[in-house]
Amino acid sequence: MKLDGIRVLDLSRFLPGPYLTMIMADHGAEVIKVEDTAHGDPSRSIGAREDGVAVYFRNLNRGKKSLALDLKAPEARAIFLELAKSTDVVVETFRPGVADRLGVGYEAVRAVKPGIVYASISAFGQKGPWSGRPAHDLSVGALAGTVAFSKGADGTPSMPGLPPTDMAAALLGLSGVLMALIGRARTGQGDFVDLAMYDAALSFIAPVLGRALTERKAPEAGVDRIFGGAALYRVYRTKDGKHFTLGGSEPKFVETLLTALGRPDLIAIGKKPAGPEQAPLHRFLEETFLTKTRDEWDAWFQGRDLCYAPVLDLIEALDHPLAAMREMLVPHEGGGKQLGVAVKYANEPGRADPRAPALGEHSATLLQALGYDATRIEALKAKGVIAAPKGAPS
């Protein structure tokens, strides 16, 4: 696989870092998840469980090894830095300064592995007055302006259905790590990746920046193109109370749709700028979509060269044939299903290892590989420096 031979020490928790490193594991990297000895990654305890494993945790940490260390103990820091000598990438999501205080920050790791690629994902970056402020996806998105994008009829911002800031940080963090690895292959030099979730959120708003930068106006529902201002790029209610989307407002789609609906007289309106000028077409389409059910419209659109889709709930989406065809739901060892690999290569394809590690499952074997004998490992367990599940090799 693409990342065979790459070793990653993953100090991250929750979503951005674990998603980043899971993608690397899917493509062959050896990812060692370094967790605290008491509870491990908090996502082990979040949400529904299947076969005793949190589904949230499994779908972010499959294929990794778990090393449970109390990094406040000098012996644990020594273990981490010994592993770092043979490591290519470190990912951490502590508040800025915490990794340094624990003795596992960039400078400490670089001292033992000069070519290390070290990625720190934080809410607001490593420096400045905001660096120490705690925040998760919702608060960061609120400050970046993205939470205000979706408002109800009363003008109240709605809760995002997904954590977009977390996901943006994960994907840009992955890009940063991979670019740094490419750079190291060329120059021999590693690098430090400072990835702020806030920066990631702002970088993703390029499609809606136009009027904000030129007119000092925030996006308006029913005016801007991707906020419902384009009649052929919005959500419509159907006869059965469900919803259907039109997702392409190019002139050719305007002509195709309105000709098929017997209203070529509205084509000129559909080609006008998004906003109030398209109001007559908005009204026509709102009334038209109420004449059939969602699934009847889906059948009507089949075979037409138009951007469209029914709005599915999550169960319907997971059951849709496309999810299986794209191998985005794959079986795991317990007999259920988990998310598949999104990045697909013709050569060296990735693989979704179905198993998520138990807390500290690989502690003993990783220490054995460093030359620790069974007596020393047991002594470290007794002191609480490491943790390993009962029955793990020692």
Could you please describe the fold and organization of this structure?
It is a single chain. This protein has 394 residues and is of the alpha/beta class. It has two domains: 7-204 and 327-387, Rossmann fold, CATH 3.40.50.10540; 233-306, formyl-coa transferase, domain 3 (2-Layer Sandwich), CATH 3.30.1540. The protein has helices spanning 16-26, 55-61, 74-84, 98-102, 106-112, 137-144, 164-187, 197-203, 210-214, 251-260, 267-270, 279-289, 294-301, 314-319, 321-325, 363-369, 374-383, and strands spanning 7-10, 30-35, 49-50, 53-54, 65-69, 89-92, 117-122, 191-196, 233-237, 243-247, 308-310, 329-331, 337-339, 386-387. Strands 8-7-6-1-2-5-14 form a seven-stranded mixed sheet, with helices on both faces. Strand 1, helix 1 and strand 2 (30-35) form a beta-alpha-beta unit. The longest helix is centred in the middle third of the chain and has 24 residues, at 164-187.
